[in-house]
Amino acid sequence: MTQPEDCRTCGACCAYADHFVEIEVDGNDADVPDDVVGDDLYLRCKLGTHECVALIGRVGDSVSCGIYDRRPQACRSFEPGSDGCLQCRAHHGLDNRRPRGNVEQSR
Fold first, then answer.
1. What is the mean pLDDT of residues 87-102?
2. Plot region of 57 (φ>0 → left; ψ -120 to 50 → alpha; else → beta)
3. Are 43 and 37 a contacting pair, CB within 8 Å?
4. Radius of gyration (Cα) for the chain, nearest Å?
5. Alpha helices in 14-56 (DSSP H)
6. Measuring CA to CA, which of 13, 18, 69, 93 is 20 to 30 A from 87?
7. Mean pLDDT in residue range 13-21
8. Are 43 and 52 within 8 A, CB to CB?
């Protein structure tokens, strides 16, 4: 796989259980839509998957966030190219090169 231009060609962090299920929505995330948050106050996964219900597209190809402007702080603070990012990418069989380009607009 070629090196991604930014997070819009990845999405691995939005579809990796060990990372994703740890995203709890708290009082500071009041703008997160109710249909994205489960009864346990964690982000919901698509039925039968470990993908966030707000993830649009296909991991490793072309993705976007359906609640980008209202995403939780945990999503906002996740660092592209961090060890966590590389772990998510490896889980999906994506190369371990760090994202480059305009990542802040895509996360």
1. 72
2. left
3. yes
4. 13
5. 17-20
6. 69
7. 74
8. yes
Q: Please report where in the chains the tokens 């939005």 appear, as a residue.
A: 14
**Tokens standing for 45?**
């996964």
Number of helices and strands in the chain (H, E): 3, 2
pLDDT band at 103 (very low <50, low <70, confident <90, very high): very low
Interior CA angle at 46 toward 70 and 93, to 5°? 95
- The amino acid at residue 52 is C
Other C-beta atoms within 10 Å of 70: how many?
A: 15
Q: Are 52 and 17 in contact (CB under 8 A)?
A: no
Helices (H), 1-107: 17-20, 73-77, 83-91
Nearest Cα neighbor of 92 from 20, 18, 12, 21 is 12
At residue 56, what is the residue type? Answer: I
Contact 15, 91 (CB under 8 A): no
pLDDT tens for each residue of 51-69: 899 999 999 989 999 999 9
Domain ranges of the chain: 7-98
